[in-house]
Amino acid sequence: MLKSTLEAFSDSNGQARHTAIAGTVELSNLIPPTVSYESRGNLLIIGPQETVTALATQFSSLNSVTLLVTEMATEKADTAEKVENLYFSNQVAVKGYLGAFEVTCRVDGSFSEIATTEASANLAKIAIGRDCFDLVVDMTAEGVVATEIPAPGYYGVGAGKAKLANVIEDLPDMLGTFDKPKYFRLNPDICAHSSRGVSGCDRCVDACPAGALSSNGHAIEINPYLCQGVGTCATACPTEAISYALPDPDNTQHFVHRLLSRYLQEGGENPTLLLYGNRDELSVVQALATLPTTVVPVALEELATVGIDTWFSALAYGAHQVLLATNAAYIPATIDRVLTDELTIAQAFLTELGYDADRITLFDLATADSFKVFDTALIPATLPAAERIEGTKREKLFAVLELLYNAAAQKPECSDVPENAPYGSVECQSDDCTLCMSCVAVCPTRALHSIGDRPGLLFIEQDCVQCGMCEKACPEKVISLKPGFNWDKEARQAAQVVHEEEAACCTSCGKPFAPASMVKMLTEKLQGHSQFQGDAIRRLAMCEDCRVRDVFSKIENDPESQLRV
Predict the structure, then answer these.
(1) 363: three-class secondary structure by DSSP
(2) Hey, is 276 helix, strand or coil?
(3) Which of 22, 49, 129, 225 is least surrounded by CB atoms within 10 angstroms?
(4) Using an 8 Å Cβ cutoff, are 497 and 433 in contact?
């Protein structure tokens, strides 16, 4: 539909756009990993009595239909006795997905002569003798399931999350096995959520509108059956521990690079990149009829699957502006918040450099007829095709920001960033730092690391994602976060000394082995302890090897010392 629409434009920009889109192959995962759902057609309908009883006959072709009444009818209550598998409860909890919905409730009454129970019970076991229902149609006004994007198989008709006519038409076909792509990749080794019992970043959990992400206390868990592929978790993740997989952002950026390069090679001018989610294709087709032919559309699985690094890369590849196409009817609040937060950071960077904030902006497709293009590029000469930007998403973002900084009229030294942005440094009250390296042990990116050959702490600002674990892990409470963006590339990438001090030398062999302040602190704190009397206290001033040798030497000379406590 989209390509046929683009063929209708005959001016030079329109022809360049059509040739670029038709001639650019988009990389994707040809055989993505999948998860499977199995449905036997056991349906549960939840809602007011009159509504659910009237709806039950619409699904007679399914294996079974169970009705759970949350509001009793005010009149003609006797008709309920004629309906099979009908129960009453106003305390209902639903969790799961297509083929595996666990419904627990206090069954306050049953018209199937099932005994009333005071405690919460598994309704599927009571009603159909199975552990789970396969499908749920929820007719309650607020919805039993609170997630903004429900799991497959759950239809929140009463809350407006599904249309009844579509549900009646589609549900009879929801029997059998269904496959869905596994939209994400997870690399826990670089996750900034927690380390050694210290909690840190939880941006991904807050960014999921489907309730697929959770913390088990020490790691992030993703339920692939609940994941609906909106991509906000990957966009919000500062370390790429979570990345989108259908396709991955790297392939998307390479496609954008090739597309814009081809458009410019074909004589196209003033390219504006329009990013949109696949579900908005019809609205985009309608908008392109009135938008300038310099607007180049790029379809994504979901709009939020790419973020600030992709947006800025497009500017580096020649786009004069990046539009994020929105349709208010399709954007849940969480997705809108994640996009807005990411956009706020992007526009803050632009304005700090003296550029128009709307070079990257949300775009309401309904305003297409009044849209005006930017007729100048941000970077005077676009990158050659062979020099597309590589690296992690942070590395690519910093590379583009450096290009924009060099071309900018305004050159700030440091800038404030919006709250919760993953950019900044740390401050250390070095007088009280003992160089225990607790901060280094929990840092997920090695932004904080030891000097190595002597007692000292180094910090690389560009690698800091402001997860806060170093601040929480510090036993002396001398580390604090300092959000902000340092435009000085050399200073941002350099390993800066946070604190260093003289090493304590082993009193036995003379080898430096620990910060002098730490040995002093431990000696002062432990000198009164019963286990650190006599020879034991002096071993604190020895290196590990000499300490072990000294202990075994004492045992060898005085074996009975092991019995004296």
Answers:
(1) strand
(2) strand
(3) 129
(4) no
Query: Which DSSP symbol is given to 330?
Result: G
Tell me the two tokens of residue 100.
């595996």
Give the residue among 179, 217, 177, 185 at the shortest CA–CA distance from 200: 217
pTM: 0.86
User: 3-state SS string over 523-551?
Assistant: HHHHCCCHHHCCHHHHHHHCCHHHHHHHH
CA distance 84 to 81: 8
Residues contacting 266, CB < 8 A, separation 6+: 15, 16, 19, 20
In the predicted structure, residue 155 carries a pLDDT above the cut 70: yes
Instruction: Give the CA distances from residue 531 to residues 25, 436, 440, 539, 558, in Å, rounded to whole numbers and listed in that order.
Output: 71, 22, 29, 12, 17
Residues 197-219: pLDDT tens digits? 999 999 999 999 999 999 998 89
pLDDT (mean) for 229-235: 94
pLDDT band at 426 (very low <50, low <70, confident <90, very high): very high
* C-alpha distances out from residue 233 to 149, 335, 564, Å: 14, 10, 58
At residue 560, what is the residue type?
E
Residue 90: C-alpha distances to residues 46, 49, 62 (Å): 10, 12, 25
Tokens 């994400």 — which residue? 184
Which tens digit of pLDDT belongs to each residue from 464-494?
999 999 999 999 999 999 999 999 999 999 9
Please name which of 249, 308, 298 lies closest in space to residue 276, comparing C-alpha atoms: 298
Could you identify the residue written with the tokens 């006959």?
57
CA distance 26 to 2: 15
As a dihedral over the C-alpha atoms of residue 186, residue 188, residue 192, residue 193, rounded to 10 degrees, the angle is 90
How many CB atoms within 10 Å of residue 549? 14
* Sheet order of strands, 92-97 included: 92-97, 100-105, 121-122
pLDDT digits over 333-390, tens only? 999 999 999 999 999 999 999 999 999 999 999 999 999 999 998 887 655 544 789 9
The pLDDT value given to residue 10: 63
d(CA 396, CA 497): 26
Q: What are phi and psi of 505, to 5 degrees?
A: -100, 140
| CA pair distance 50, 474, nearest whole angstrom | 61
What the chain holds in terms of domains, given with CATH numbers, is: 2-28+248-407 (no CATH), 36-179 (3.50.50), 182-244 (3.30.70.20), 424-500 (3.30.70.20), 505-563 (no CATH)
276: its two tokens: 């949109």
